[in-house]
Amino acid sequence: MVKSIEKWQFGDFQTPDELAREVVETLIANHEISPNFIVEPSCGKGSFIRASLDRFPHAKVIGLDINELYVKEASLSISDCPNSENATISRSDFFDTDWQALISNLFDNILIIGNPPWVTSSELSILNSQNLPSKSNFQNRRGIEAITGSGNFDISEWMLLQYVEWLSNREGTIAVLCKYSVARKVILQVKQKSGNRFSSYIYSIDAKAYFGASVEACLCIITTQADSNTDCKVYADLKSEQPLYLIGERDGSIVRNTVKYEQWMHLAGRDLKYLWRSGVKHDCSKVMELVRIGDNLFQNGLGERASLEEDYLYPLLKSSDIGNSRTIDYRKLVLITQKSVGEDTSIIKNTAPKTWQYLLDRQEYLINRKSSIYKNKPLYSIFGIGSYSFKNWKIAISGLYKKLNFCLVKPLDGKSVMFDDTVNFLSFETEEEAKFIFGLLTATPALEFLDSTIFWDEKRPVTIDILRRLSLEAVAKELGNLEDYMQWMDSIDRPMLR
Ligand SMILES: C[S@@+](CC[C@H](N)C(=O)[O-])C[C@H]1O[C@@H](n2cnc3c(N)ncnc32)[C@H](O)[C@@H]1O
Question: Of 87, 271, 340, 446, which residue is least crowded by CB atoms under 10 Å?
Fold first, then answer.
């Protein structure tokens, strides 16, 4: 147990020799890398050092790791390697190492290679670990938040950004195994900060097979070697010679497939009428979500039965329902206590006394909701609610599922359907309008445009921001349906103008 926590806090996944060798072969075959100096900043048991000594016989190799035992093992393991005299392996904590001094002693070309720790800052704080950068600004996060834009970040992201700094006025290449999401974030930041100074490449690797880890991982290469196209090329695996697609920055956002995006970029734009929303947020499913067990009789997530008026109960479809196209029936109902955010809830006392009593009896659960959004709000407040929630027809898509599965959702038992807050939706007064927009959204141009922008490895790939980038007006025009679109446009209200 102690050992596994140790491994966890040091993000310890040792690279098999076979994979390290394949990485080095890819660097030589596809990128003609020929370094004079090689640095492995967290070398572990030394697989990248052995592979480098073997294939880069003239390079000087420096390996460092925080773990004394690994340093000894790596040093022993190279004694039989050719050119072992070229390597120096020593114990050092990455965060205490004087990298400026070390790097300034090396001349071009430098190869920074390896597999930095696989651990996030929030995991480290759960473990109460000190394995974090510069105690001064890192522990209170400000420094890293400024760099990564987030309170929780991968330690490898921070390290990679350091490696890029080392190459800010040197020629060289970074080649590391990391999460695909880390590679993407770093490449975007490098692009924003350094323009076209670096070229970048991502090769997918099978993390399950090599590390037993269920994560999308890759070899990320960032190099000062020029490439005519500075978009990041993404390859299926280390043996591929042709990229699957190119990631790049377009219209201020990073898109997954620049070629496809450019084919459909005329569909980008804010839609004036149709505004994507996310479902209801209440953070208290045990009380707010119920199953019908009889006439006006319901059971909540605490296993308690209650007789309630129907007034505040609505059919609920969750991400799993929408993701699996289960829309003609519902399992649960949700208590919708407000028609708009911040609305006074005390009227429930008169309009539905049993519902009021039900909430009152369980108010400790609602008052103790952690999120600060509920502070200083009327009792039993919910979020993600407005007049749009009560329109009868909806088009919904789960933010969590890795497919563009739009569902047309009709009212159930005469009431508009509500969704949980991981579902994104548009709403409509009439079936005809909903069906018209559904036709636009599920047509190839709209699907290909959206697909080109979505990173499917994200935990929540289909975001409101992405959906809002598509102009349905432009799709209608593309499909020759602009006149019909304009008729709907002229009809009812326009949320963007409110
Ligand atoms: C994912 S493993 C990879 C090891 C090696 N690079 C490889 O590819 O097999 C991460 C390594 O980072 C080392 N490590 C963790 N925190 C470190 C730190 N603060 N300074 C230096 N090395 C560290 C761990 O001991 C571990 O060997």
Answer: 340
Alpha-carbon span 298 to 167, nearest angstrom: 64
Structure-block tokens of residue 467 = 């959906």
What DSSP character marks residue 14? P
* pLDDT average, residue stretch 194-199: 90
- What distance in angstroms lies between residue 42's CA and the mean position of ligand 1's atoms? 4
Cβ atoms of residues 53 and 87 within 8 Å: yes
Q: Tell how far the Cα of 41 is from the centroid of ligand 1, in angstroms.
A: 8
* Other Cβ atoms closer than 10 A to 404: 18
CB neighbours of 87 closer than 8 A, spacing ≥ 6? 49, 53, 60, 61, 62, 63, 78, 81
What average pLDDT does range 409-423 have in this prediction? 97
Give me ligand 1 centre to Cα 372, in Å: 37
pLDDT score for 493:
55
In contact, 440 and 447? CB cutoff 8 Å: no
Give the pair of three-digit tokens for residue 41. 């900043």
CA distance 200 to 175: 10
| Interval 280-299 mean pLDDT | 95
Among protein residues, the one with the nearest Cα to ligand 1's atom 17 is 66
**Distance from CA of residue 319 to its chain's centroid?**
17
> What is the dihedral sign for C-alpha 258, 263, 269, 271?
negative
What are the CA-CA distances from residue 27 to residues 242, 247, 481 (Å)?
15, 20, 50
> From the CA of 156, how far away is ligand 1's center (Å)?
10
143: pLDDT strictly greater than 80: no
CA 454 to chain centre: 10
Domains and CATH numbers, the chain: 2-250 (3.40.50.150), 277-497 (no CATH)
For residue 38, report the distance from its CA to the centre of ligand 1, in Å: 16
**Ligand 1 pocket, residues with Cβ under 6 angstroms:** 10-15, 42-45, 47-48, 65-67, 70, 93-95, 114-115, 117-118, 131
